[in-house]
Every structure is written in structure tokens, then in C-alpha cells.
Amino acid sequence: MKGFIFDKEQILFHPDILNEIHVGILICDRNGKLLFINRFAANIFDTAPNDWIGHHMTSIIPDSVIYKALTTKTPQIGKHSKWKKKNFIVDASPIIVKNTVIGAISTLKDDQELQRLTDAYEDLKRYVNMLEIKLEYSTQLPYTFSDFIVAPDSPMCKIIFKILKAASTDIPILIRGESGVGKELIAIAIHESSLKAEGPFITVNCAAIPESLMESELFGYEEGAFTGAKKNGKKGKFELAKGGSIFLDEIGDMNYNLQAKLLRVLQQKEMVRVGGNDAIPLDVRIITATHQNLELMIKEGKFREDLYYRINGTSFEIPPLRARKMDIKAIVQQTLVELNNHYGKRLTLSDEAETLLINHPLQGNVRELKHALEHAVIMCEYEEIKTSDLPITFIDKVNDFGKQLSTVPIKYRVDPSDHHEESNTLNLNYHVGKIEKKLIIEALERSGYNRSKAIKILGISRQTFYDRLKQYEINL
Ligand SMILES: Nc1ncnc2c1ncn2[C@@H]1O[C@H](COP(=O)(O)OP(=O)(O)OP(=O)(O)O)[C@@H](O)[C@H]1O
User: Ligand 1: which residue has its CA nearest to atom 13?
Assistant: First the structure.
């Protein structure tokens, strides 16, 4: 036990009680002599406690707040104070017994500590805010849609409720909408809230699988069905999805002849493996998606009308992200929290960057938005994401889209020629590489990061495409 004489009384306590806390404490007597200083305060003042105890406050800290509280007999709250370039906040109060001031006490908080606490508080507030948003619509939306971020006042909420009604039946569902709006995410949620939730969820991207392989991919094959066929044959996606759901993504890209085979399978509720004879019963929920106008394709003779009616028990159109700006905000907010956690950062978004995101055409929808944000989080070197941290091509698109947009100041546009490294070189590979990379990124963005479409746009083979992604470190 240690202590001090206070107003002729010996006061004893264990010093750790006041030394372990992250707030400085000073106590002085009725004459202004320092009686006690805890470790935190001593650190702020860069002194050893014993060097100061017994000295008059005015001799150690001229204009000290504690002395002012003592002499004016009035509490001094939230006073900013400075000591050798260190800023801190001081609260001080006289100690009054039986109407007589017998001393004073003050607390000191390091301004940096205050900053740290404010930052932590802001982080926590953002997190709570995000949880509140989640909670608000999670009371309305079922857990199966927990990954699907929507604002509480989003038009998507109504659509989701309708989807859920359909999900609980066996009816085939067609999901429509631009690339990247979340059709696959919705298909997963439909499966999870369906009667077949316990079974597998199998995805087939009808645009990505070469036509020649599609039939065996879907329906499987028997041993010896064709050259290169595996021993014992192979199960198709429909067989793999048994008891669960099959999600036929980009159904509009399915070859016309195969459409007829698919229709037969759906009508007869059974299928036969390529090169086989035995009928295998079909026990799957059918969910399809497309970004194409199937009705127009039917008129143009590119999509079978009978298949259209078979897959379209009911259909839902997911609006593009630019048509539901409240969702952009909600997605940005939550994605930033997730990215900060992932990259160990504590970044916030500047107003300019937020304005740009909200006014962006976002042709690649949520996928494009998330990619742009991740790029910005990785590139950002300070505490706030600026417009210039977003990908150049992304900024260019908003400028092209809305030249009238006064909200995106021209100063935020980054000119690629600003990067002078090696710009004087005539090395052909260097320049060809730069152009190739730019074209690949452009194709990816135009296709809403749909690889198959990007490959088509670029007119290169899948292998070359993936080789280039690796070579230019383009992460998808
Ligand atoms: N509302 C949302 N909340 C959170 N993430 C979303 C949302 N919508 C889409 N995403 C994310 O955006 C990306 C694209 O979503 P998804 O693949 O489901 O879109 P899609 O419409 O099926 O695209 P495509 O037609 O190109 O296949 C995924 O990473 C998905 O998780």
C-alpha cells in the first residue's frame, strides 16, 4: 500500500488501481501542491512520479487546468492542453468537503488515445450500422438470402418475397437480368429454401461448355460412347443433381438441337446417358437464368418456344443495379467492411468516390462494383478511398456514360500516360503486352466479367485467355 497525506489524513491505497488505467490522474492539495500522479500521466509528461510530487502545480505546469479548478472552485471539463507538442484533453474538479475546497483532481486523456478511441468507435458504428441494415431486412428476408445485400427500401425486397413463394413449390423458375445482377446467388437461395434444399445444387454454364461436349456434360455417357470416353462412363450434371437442383445458367446460349434434347428430358422426366440405353429417372428442380431476350430469340428462331414454356413455370426479372441506387450504397457499405477485414485495413470511402459509384452505369452490375471496390482497397495508400484509387477504365466509363456528370471532377481522371515508367523504351514486347492487358481488361468489363463472353469478344482460345490472365496478373 502506498498513499499520501491529504488534508492532514493519510490516504492509503494500492497504486496499481490508478496506475493500470489509460487515463492520467493528478491530485493536488488545497495549496496547489501535487500529491499524486499516476503512471499514465507521468508518461504523458515524460517524468518520474517522484520528481514532481510535492512541487507546486504552477511550478511544474504553468496554466495547469487542475490549478484553475482549485483556484476558481469550478470544474474544468474537456479542456485542450499541450505539453511538449503532445495534445491531451483535461477534466479537472475541485474537491470540496463541508463547503471548503481541500484540493483538486484532474484526469488527462491522450489526444492520440482519443483519436484511436474515436476511430474504433467510428468502426464500431459502421459495423453496427451494417448489422442494423442486415437485421432490418433479415427480419423480413429469410436466412437463405443472407448473402444477397439489399437496402431495406429496395424494390428487390418485394421481388425476393415473390421468388420465395415460388421457391417452396416444384415449379421451374427462370431468372432474368443483366450479367452480374446476382442471378446465380438468387438461384442458390431458391435451392436453399426449396423442398430439395438437402440435395445438391449443380450449376451448368451453358455459354461456357463447348457445344460438342454439352450433351455428355448434361446427361453423362457410357463407357465406349466415343473416343476418349472414360472407363465405366461418367455421370452427367442431371444425375449429379439427383434429389437437388440444377441451375442452367445462360440458357439462351444453348445450342438449338440440344434444346430439343433438353425439352424431351424435361417432358419425359427421364434421360438416357450418351451411348446408353437405360432410362434414368429425373429427380431435380430446374432453375434457369439468362440475360437474353428469349421472346425475341423465339421470333428469330434461335430459341425453342416449347422449351421456353417448359422452363418458364414462373420468371423473375432482376433490375440492373443502376436502377436501384439504394442497393449500391448498401452493397458498398457492407463490401467495404468485408474487404477491410480481409485486407486488415480500416479504409473509409470519400464522398467523391461514393458519388462516382452511385452515378456509374455499372453495366457489369454487382460484380463490376465489387471488383472496382476491391481494386480501390488494394491501391489505397491513405485512410480514405479517393476516386483515383478506382480502376482507370472504371472511371473512364462513368465519364463516357455521363459527360454531363458534374459530380465527377475531371481532376480525378487518371491519364494512363502519367505512368512514365519505361515510356521511352521502344521494346516491342513491352508495348504489345501493355495493349494486350488493356484489351483483356476492356473485354472483361464489357462482358460484365463473364469469361466466356470475354473470350468471344477477344477472339482467342480459352487456353490463351487463361495464360494471359496469369501473365498479366489479372485476378478474377
Ligand atoms: N445483392 C448482392 N449482394 C451481394 N453480392 C452480390 C449481390 N448480387 C450479386 N452479388 C455478387 O456479384 C457477383 C455476380 O453475381 P452472380 O454471379 O450471381 O451474377 P449473375 O447475374 O449470375 O451473373 P452472370 O449472368 O454473369 O452469370 C458474385 O460475386 C455475387 O456474389
Answer: 367
